[in-house]
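Per your request, structure below.
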């Protein structure tokens, strides 16, 4: 109801000044001291004097309320209330974004809680929510790479694919060059205003037949901006060191080895930036910064449609006045 009232506008609001008459009439009717003498007539009666006023006597006191309410509704009707229905037409030149995520087993390291992969998935999903006007795709890589989700404006699908990502179903290793090349190949035919790749890894390129800087040169030639993120704390971290016969990982402490120089070179080659995320909070800050760097300007045109609502106020006001007149000359009639 309150949302509805916020959409009410008045075509002739100056008539609302007349509402000041209502409190003035209330004061005159109920609070203004009466001067002069009132004529009385003594009438003999055999019945004892009434000690309790009847319901009719009480009703007569409040009869003027109908008149005041009727006047209020009629004044509002004069101001011509209208219900404003707003429609927005949004014109936006979207940005196409490919998220390239490392799925090597080291992404299960416990320096993030519960691990690097789960935090990366969570923060990436929140980033997707902030980009309602953009098409987003998903590329994953470890020792090999492939497109998990092509560019789409259906962000529910992107988030579902993100939530299903796991380590271990790709060949082991970290093929940064191949992951970046796959992302570039997926976005190269886009006609978007801006083409962006966000590449997240926690290690160094150690496999694959495409060198990372070669893939970066490809991105630059195709006017694709690459932002790189190195995820992992500094020092030692509890990291998978092998697998048991049942497929579970064996964890042990190992030094975090991220090739920051390489990631920085990739970003600089394409006009992007390199970021280091050492905790969940810092990773959120990285995505927030990228979100600000790649903002889309939107042209918003607002249309308003109005529907006149004064007839309902007019009808209620007239009904109240009619009820006042009928009662004042019938059952609630008083004699001077």
């Amino acid at each position: 109801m309150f949302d509805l009232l916020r959409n009410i506008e008045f075509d002739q609001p100056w008539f609302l000044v007349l509402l000041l008459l209502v409190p003035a009439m209330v004061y005159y009717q109920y609070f203004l001291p009466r001067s002069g003498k009132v004529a009385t007539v003594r009438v003999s009666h055999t019945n004892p004097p009434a000690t309790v006023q009847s319901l009719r006597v009480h009703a007569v006191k409040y009869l003027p309320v109908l008149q005041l309410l009727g006047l209020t509704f009629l004044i509002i009707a004069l101001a011509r209330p209208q219900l404003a229905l707003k429609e927005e037409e949004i014109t936006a030149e979207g940005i196409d974004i490919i998220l390239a995520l490392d799925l090597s087993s080291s992404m299960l390291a416990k320096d993030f809680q519960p691990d690097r992969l789960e935090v990366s998935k969570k923060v990436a999903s929140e980033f997707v929510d902030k980009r309602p006007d953009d098409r987003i795709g998903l590329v994953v890589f470890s020792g090999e790479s492939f497109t998990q989700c092509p560019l789409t404006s259906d962000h529910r699908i992107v988030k579902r694919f993100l939530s299903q990502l796991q380590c271990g179903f790709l060949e082991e290793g970290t093929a940064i060059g191949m992951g970046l090349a796959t992302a570039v190949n997926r976005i190269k035919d886009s006609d978007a205003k801006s083409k962006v790749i966000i590449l997240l890894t926690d290690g160094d390129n150690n496999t694959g037949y495409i060198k990372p800087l070669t893939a970066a040169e490809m991105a630059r030639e195709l006017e694709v901006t690459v932002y790189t993120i190195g995820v992992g704390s500094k020092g030692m971290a509890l990291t998978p060191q092998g697998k048991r016969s049942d497929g579970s990982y064996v964890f042990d402490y190992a030094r975090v080895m991220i090739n920051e120089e390489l990631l920085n070179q990739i970003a600089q080659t394409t006009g992007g930036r390199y970021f280091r995320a050492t905790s969940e909070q810092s990773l959120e800050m990285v995505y927030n910064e990228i979100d600000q760097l790649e903002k889309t300007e939107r042209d918003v045109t607002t249309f308003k449609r109005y529907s006149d609502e004064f007839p309902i106020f007019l009808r209620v006001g007239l009904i109240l006045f009619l009820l006042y007149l009928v009662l004042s000359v019938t059952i609630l009639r008083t004699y001077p």
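DSSP finds eleven helices and eleven strands in the chain.

Regards,
D.
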